[in-house]
Amino acid sequence: MERGNVAHRRGNGRPRTGQFSVEKVKDMVGNDPKLSIQKASETLDISTATVYRVSRRTLFFFPCELQNYQALLESDEKKRVEFAKDCQTYPIG
Questions:
Q1: 66-93, pLDDT tens digit by residue?
Q2: Domain count across the chain
Q3: In the list 22, 33, 55, 68, which could disulfide-bond 61, CB 3.0-4.6 Å?
């Protein structure tokens, strides 16, 4: 009687992406970091899902969203300190 093992064996299944795709995406993003995933997939003739998967999971590239903040003036610091002190004096609840 033969006994089996249900443990996962490494190497089962098809590899998700080839090293060729990884290098193509890495070069493309290195040349133009603001390039969208859609444009990169069209240019490289690779599916959008593959470009997304390679950029996020393999190369650890994540989109960065720039945010605008109001500039703080020197006079604002005094107001902020006064506000923080007022908040500490009021009871919570």
A1: 677 888 888 888 999 999 999 888 877 6
A2: 1
A3: 55
